[in-house]
């Protein structure tokens, strides 16, 4: 059985009079990358701030490594590494001194571990330079090195690819996969980039306006919503025929999209041919999370 | 805890604030030394080089005569006795009373910087120590480590106290060594008057006595340190409450300057004496200068400062451990 490393139960947060997080629950398992997907202002960062103990939940509970973070803050935090929004380290210290600074806040983490994580994120050549001379990508790596110092079970990254170039994004993605698969960490990644989550995560929670709309594996979410894309001639006739059989969706490029069902799809094709509509193109399409998201949130704004 | 303090020290040193403060103090001391030197030169021109000895001798003889006169009151006699002792010391040790050595310069420097200058220097460090973590965003890492918030704050506060002690020590050291180059390093044992108390009837000199300058300096240092700690703690509190370092400094600066202005206006606003900033000039009580508001005494001022200190510390810790960090 997979171990639960982080569990969140019915988490709520009221700021002022506004309820920003309205009861979120989910669990992270060992060795998985969990996506936290939502549009701007959905409450991802607010939730993460509660997970890492920066703000107090109005109600609900958070357990990390089995410890409640309110009652056993120190024990819970030992199992956690995080970057909230940007990795903001001390610019006037060297990378090494930054790591030293945070190693001193952990028990039994010394120079050896510092050089281990430095090696792991590939910063060895620049580690003694001042952080203010680092590029954003290097800061991101230093942030991760810092988060990994205490050998955490849970790694929380808020928009880790923010501001990285395509190569950097890819590298970050591979690194996160590596941490989960090889090192057995649970990684929580938040993002508003759907394609990123799709490529990176095992499971995903979709969040909008402070509530989780759905939590599922990426595969499940996608395969339940396979589509068929049609192109035929003449268009009007075909639409008439197909429209009488199932719900159709017309695209601007002249294609028609319907749901996919192994048996029914063949049936519809036959009907079209019988009505002397020539089907020029017909293929199965996995939905991208964009579509899924729009469907689930009813068109709530995304970037 | 030691490691946390090490961290704070590392950051403090990397920011080089202490160096800047030391340089500012150094420049200021050099300036004052030069001003004093000019003043001495002017005096000397007026009197002629060695005349001051004759003048003091003359004064001593005059004072002795008056003391032995039967018509004089006991109280007056006592005061004359004290003045005579002082003059005798200057003569015996070859010190021109109007041309002080380094210890005297240091004492005057401390007395004049207790109200504004030292608090300002302390404020530069204290108002930044918590709020800079906010403005840099590093607070998000600092508070998500397995260390309780009060421990993080305590390590910062202890570091602040160490830094303040260092600033006071630097002020003493620089004012002594720089002014000594010009005025010489003599005068540790020079007698200084103290023991005044101000009562309703006016200045009470009944318990006035002479003590050695080094003893007096020790007390001065204690008072300067105390004031620095109180001002530091209050700036520290502002640093916790206000996220912007500049805004925190602004508030403290306004308070300090308001204090300096208030204590110079003969204030009929009696309850102003409960403000911490009009109570900063503790060394005045030792010199017998009248307090800014009637009824203020050394112990009263210390009490007021202590209450502000305790409140500042309480608010800092309470807010820091409770507040949400965005
Ligand atoms: N300190 C605060 N006071 C009041 N409202 C806040 C505060 N912080 C966040 N909010 C509100 O909470 C909501 C969620 O914000 P949050 O930063 O969690 O969004 P997010 O999902 O991280 O968005 P993004 O993708 O833009 O980072 C927003 O509507 C925001 O206006
Ligand atoms: Mg966010």
What's the arrangement of secondary structure elements?
The complex is a heterodimer of chains A (303) and B (326).
Chain A: E1 4-15, E2 18-29, E3 33-37, H1 44-51, E4 59-64, E5 67-68, H2 73-78, E6 80-83, H3 95-103, H4 111-121, H5 136-148, E7 154-158, H6 166-181, E8 186-191, H7 194-200, E9 203-208, E10 211-217, H8 218-223, E11 227-233, H9 235-245, E12 249-250, E13 256-259, H10 262-274, E14 278-285, H11 289-297
Parallel strand pairs in A: 3-8, 3-9, 6-7, 7-8
Antiparallel strand pairs in A: 1-2, 1-4, 4-5, 9-10, 11-13, 11-14, 12-13
Chain B: H1 2-15, H2 17-47, H3 51-68, H4 74-92, H5 102-113, H6 117-129, H7 131-136, H8 139-142, H9 149-183, E1 191-194, E2 197-199, E3 202-204, E4 209-212, H10 213-241, H11 245-264, H12 283-287, H13 298-322
Antiparallel strand pairs in B: 1-4, 2-3
Residues 15, 20, 38, 40-46, 192 of chain A line the site of adenosine-5'-triphosphate (ATP).
Radius of gyration of chain B: 23 Å
Oligomer designation = heterodimer
Give the termini distance of chain A in whole angstroms: 38 Å
How many separate structural domains of chain B? 1
Strand order of the largest sheet of chain A: 6-7-8-3-9-10
Task: Please mark out the parts of chain B with pLDDT under 50 across 5 or more consecutive residues, or reply none.
Answer: none
- Overall 3D form of chain A: elongated
Helix content percent band of chain A: 25-40%
Instruction: Report the CATH topology name of the largest domain in chain A.
Output: Rossmann fold
| Gap between N and C termini of chain B | 26 Å
Total domain units of chain A: 2
Which strands sit side by side, in order, in the main sheet of chain B? 1-4
- Estimated structural class of chain B: mainly alpha
Average pLDDT score of chain B? 86
Secondary-structure element sequence of chain B? HHHHHHHHHEEEEHHHH
In CATH, what is the homologous superfamily of the largest domain in chain A?
P-loop containing nucleotide triphosphate hydrolases
């Amino acid at each position: 059985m997979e171990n639960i490393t982080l569990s969140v139960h019915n988490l709520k947060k009221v700021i002022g009079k506004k309820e920003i997080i309205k009861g979120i629950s989910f669990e992270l398992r060992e060795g998985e990358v969990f996506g936290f997907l939502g549009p701007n202002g959905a409450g991802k960062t607010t939730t993460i701030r509660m997970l890492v103990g920066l703000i107090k939940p109005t109600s609900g509970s958070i357990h990390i490594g089995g410890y409640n973070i309110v009652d056993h803050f120190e024990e819970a935090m030992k199992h956690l590494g995080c970057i909230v929004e940007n990795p903001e380290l001390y610019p006037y210290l060297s990378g090494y001194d930054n790591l030293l600074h945070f190693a001193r806040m952990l028990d039994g983490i010394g120079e050896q571990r510092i050089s281990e994580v430095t090696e792991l994120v590939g910063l060895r050549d620049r580690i003694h330079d001042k952080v203010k001379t680092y590029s954003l990508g290097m800061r991101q790596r230093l942030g991760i090195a810092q988060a990994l110092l205490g050998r955490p079970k849970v790694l929380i990254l808020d928009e880790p690819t923010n501001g990285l170039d395509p190569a950097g994004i890819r590298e970050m993605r591979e690194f996160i996969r590596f941490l989960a698969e090889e090192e057995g960490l649970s990684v929580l990644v938040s993002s508003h980039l759907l394609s990123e989550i799709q490529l990176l995560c095992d499971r995903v929670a979709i969040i909008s306006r402070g509530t989780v709309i759905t939590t599922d594996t990426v595969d499940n979410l996608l395969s339940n919503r396979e589509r068929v894309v049609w192109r035929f001639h003449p268009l009007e006739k075909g639409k008439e025929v197909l429209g009488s059989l199932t719900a159709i969706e017309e695209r601007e490029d002249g294609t028609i999209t319907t749901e996919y069902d192994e048996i029914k799809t063949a049936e519809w094709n036959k009907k079209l041919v019988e009505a002397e509509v020539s089907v020029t193109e017909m293929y199965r399409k996995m939905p991208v999370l964009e579509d899924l998201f729009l469907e689930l949130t009813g068109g709530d704004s995304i970037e | 805890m030691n490691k946390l303090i090490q961290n704070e020290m590392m950051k403090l040193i990397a920011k080089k604030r202490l160096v800047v403060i030391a340089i500012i103090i150094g420049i200021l001391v050099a300036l004052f030394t030069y001003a004093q030197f000019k003043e001495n030169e002017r005096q000397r021109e007026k009197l002629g080089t060695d005349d001051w000895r004759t003048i003091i001798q003359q004064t001593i003889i005059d004072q002795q005569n008056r003391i032995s006169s039967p018509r004089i009151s006991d109280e007056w006699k006592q005061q004359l006795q004290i003045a005579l002792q002082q003059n005798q010391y200057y003569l015996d040790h070859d010190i021109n009373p109007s041309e002080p050595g380094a210890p005297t310069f240091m004492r005057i420097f401390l007395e004049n910087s207790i109200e504004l200058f030292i608090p300002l220097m302390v404020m530069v460090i204290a108002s930044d120590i918590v709020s800079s973590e906010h403005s840099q965003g590093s607070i998000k890492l600092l508070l998500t480590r397995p260390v309780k918030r009060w421990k993080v704050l305590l390590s910062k506060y202890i570091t602040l106290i160490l830094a303040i002690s260092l600033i006071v020590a630097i002020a003493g050291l620089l004012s002594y060594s720089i002014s000594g180059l010009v005025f010489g390093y003599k005068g540790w044992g020079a007698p200084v008057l103290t023991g005044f108390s101000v009562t309703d009837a006016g200045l009470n000199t009944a318990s006035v006595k002479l003590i050695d300058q080094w003893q007096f300096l020790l007390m001065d240092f204690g008072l300067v340190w105390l004031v620095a700690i109180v001002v530091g703690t209050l700036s520290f509190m502002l640093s916790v409450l206000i996220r912007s370092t500049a805004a925190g400094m602004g508030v403290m600066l306004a308070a300090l300057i308001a204090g300096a202005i208030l204590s110079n206006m003969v204030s009929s606003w009696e309850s102003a004496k409960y403000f911490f900033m009009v109570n900063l000039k503790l060394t005045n009580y030792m010199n017998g200068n009248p307090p800014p508001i009637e009824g203020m005494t050394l112990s009263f001022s210390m009490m007021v400062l202590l209450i502000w200190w305790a409140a500042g510390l309480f608010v800092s810790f309470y807010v820091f451990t409770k507040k949400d960090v965005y």
